[in-house]
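From the methods appendix. Each design record in this collection lists the tokenized structure first, followed by the designed amino acid sequence. Records were kept in a plain field format so they could be parsed without special tools. The example shown here is representative of the layout used throughout.

RECORD:
FOLD TOKENS (577 positions):
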């Protein structure tokens, strides 16, 4: 960040009724900002991997016991009407924000500007903002929301402009890791209903918005793909009474289950059940399904509706070059006996483009070891232990009791290495199918690490360190062999991820390990009074990493400005009627 162009201190602006006083910062110090800008999450950090794994396991085992949706029957059951002064409406959709500050704020800054000019289109600031899930990473919590989500959006739009835009949010799986506690406290509350300059409008973790000219937007909370609870279905039953055969519906869901169903056929069942039992009986048409969760932009076009993924709000980039060219939705092999009729959808657009996404994959060699130093250290530790075990067997001697106790049994280390690599080659979701390619690639990865350890052992035994009196060989191994073997092993993991990614295995890890902040996107919708919907998919090829205090000290002006914001359209505008 840059501290240049610091404006003179000004008196605090008067706040509107119900708003918290917002004092503009005079430096980029966290004490001035009111939050701490965070670096991107190092997704392969060992402690984070363990923590995330435990949280996922607990969510799977105890999610039903922690599910607060059943309690929301006591909350308000309002529906919300959003219409602009001209009878139309501008609405933004953003998802998967709340990771590193630079990427999250780059998008928040664009959302907050009074107007954007993108490829010749003048696009006013939206009167409604919908967040599509995963508003924070790596897990929900007060401090994480403040630093990674609410703080950056407060800096982008400090107080509400005259049109007072409204915010609605769908919870994603990361919002659910604490049982939805922090999400409800932030987005569903009876006082201080503000998220920066956006007013929070919803009364539950799901919502229904009536839009101009018969359009509706329904936001679902399916608790990480498990099911739709009875209070939620009852709420939407009441909403459905307001739908007519002339109504057109947009359904916002936490994850693109239409894509995930290619690997996990039952993934789409909850969405299909909702459309089939709640919306379809009214005669209304679902024209668009929209979600985040996968951190890119992709649109599938079908005979009746569009399926759009737009998870580019700030989290690490997820690849597009392995997306299926065609989808069958619902999949023919779902176990649901009364599923809707299967229809075919074709991939109409993606961002980043296929070739660019593939090129991003090659960056794994340089990014993995330096973006994930803890993971590299873990690899070095494991390879050092494996080398000592192999060296002990090769030398067939132990100079002292201490050395015998220090040695790690070779068989145990080999089992840990092979099983760890085999289970690392997992499907992209917990319920996905594990095919033969997963086992073949996983075992081959493990064998490659054993071979690397054998080569390292041979080299180590030919160096003078092993002949030193105990415990000097162990010290030399930790100081010299560990860091070098960790770096070499990280390149082996990078090679594995690149090869496995070509077969559709460990694609998430290939890109999560890199933490690519560029290629972000959000959607800006225009609902015209005559019922025409135009969707502008706005892409940002490069996020800003250099910020300065805004010389404009008006209350609604963003606190920080980037040096080179340059959005463009990911594809030409999409028109629905």
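DESIGN:
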């Amino acid at each position: 960040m840059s501290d240049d162009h610091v404006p003179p201190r000004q008196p605090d602006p008067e706040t509107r009724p119900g708003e918290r006083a917002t004092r503009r910062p005079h430096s980029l110090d966290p004490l001035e900002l009111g939050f701490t800008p965070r670096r991107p999450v190092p997704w392969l950090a060992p402690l984070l991997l363990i923590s995330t794994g435990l949280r996922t396991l607990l969510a799977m085992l105890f999610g039903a016991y922690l599910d607060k949706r059943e309690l929301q029957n006591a909350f308000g059951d309002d529906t919300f009407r959003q219409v602009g002064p001209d009878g139309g409406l501008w609405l933004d959709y953003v998802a998967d924000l709340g990771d590193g500050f630079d990427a999250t704020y780059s998008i928040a800054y664009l959302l907050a500007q009074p107007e954007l000019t993108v490829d010749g289109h003048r696009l006013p600031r939206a009167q409604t903002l919908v967040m599509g899930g995963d508003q924070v990473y790596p897990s929900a919590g007060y401090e994480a929301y403040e630093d990674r989500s609410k703080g950056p959006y407060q800096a982008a739009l400090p107080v509400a402009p005259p049109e007072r835009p409204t915010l609605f949010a769908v919870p994603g799986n990361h919002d659910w890791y604490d049982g939805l506690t922090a999400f409800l406290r932030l987005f569903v509350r009876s006082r201080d209903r503000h998220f920066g300059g956006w007013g929070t409008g919803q009364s539950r973790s799901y919502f229904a918005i009536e839009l101009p000219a018969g359009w509706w937007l329904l936001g679902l909370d399916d608790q990480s793909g498990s099911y739709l609870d009875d209070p939620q279905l009852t709420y939407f039953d009441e909403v459905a009474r307001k739908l007519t055969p002339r109504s057109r519906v947009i359904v916002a869901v936490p994850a693109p289950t239409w894509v995930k169903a290619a690997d996990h056929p039952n993934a789409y069942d909850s969405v299909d059940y909702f459309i089939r039992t709640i919306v379809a009986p009214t005669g209304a048409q679902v024209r668009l399904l929209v979600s985040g969760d996968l951190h890119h932009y992709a649109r599938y076009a079908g005979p009746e509706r569009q399926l759009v993924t737009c998870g580019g709000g700030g989290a690490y980039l997820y690849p597009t070059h392995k997306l299926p060219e065609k989808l069958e939705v619902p999949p023919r092999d779902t176990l649901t006996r009364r599923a809707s009729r299967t229809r075919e959808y074709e991939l109409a657009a993606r961002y980043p483009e296929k070739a660019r996404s593939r090129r991003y994959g090659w960056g794994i060699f340089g990014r993995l070891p330096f973006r994930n130093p803890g993971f590299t250290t873990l690899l070095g530790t494991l390879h050092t232990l494996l080398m000592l075990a192999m060296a002990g067997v090769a030398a067939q001697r132990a100079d002292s009791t201490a050395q015998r106790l220090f040695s790690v049994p070779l068989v145990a280390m080999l089992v840990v290495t092979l099983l760890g690599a085999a289970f690392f080659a997992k499907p992209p979701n917990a319920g996905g199918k594990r095919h033969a390619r997963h086992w073949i690639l996983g075992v081959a990865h493990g064998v490659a690490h054993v071979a690397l350890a054998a080569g390292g052992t041979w080299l180590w035994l030919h160096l003078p360190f092993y002949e030193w009196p105990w415990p000097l060989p162990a010290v030399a191994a930790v100081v010299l062999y560990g860091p070098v073997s960790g770096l070499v092993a990280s390149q082996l993991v990078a090679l594995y991820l690149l090869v496995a990614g070509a077969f559709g295995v460990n694609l998430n890890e290939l890109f999560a390990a890199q933490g690519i902040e560029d290629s972000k996107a959000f959607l800006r919708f225009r609902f015209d009074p005559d019922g025409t919907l135009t969707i502008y998919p706005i892409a940002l090829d490069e996020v800003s990493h250099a910020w300065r205090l805004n010389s404009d000290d008006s209350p609604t002006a963003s606190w920080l400005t980037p040096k080179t914001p340059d959005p463009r359209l990911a594809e030409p505008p999409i028109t629905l009627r």
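APPENDIX NOTE: The chain is about 35% helix and 20% strand.
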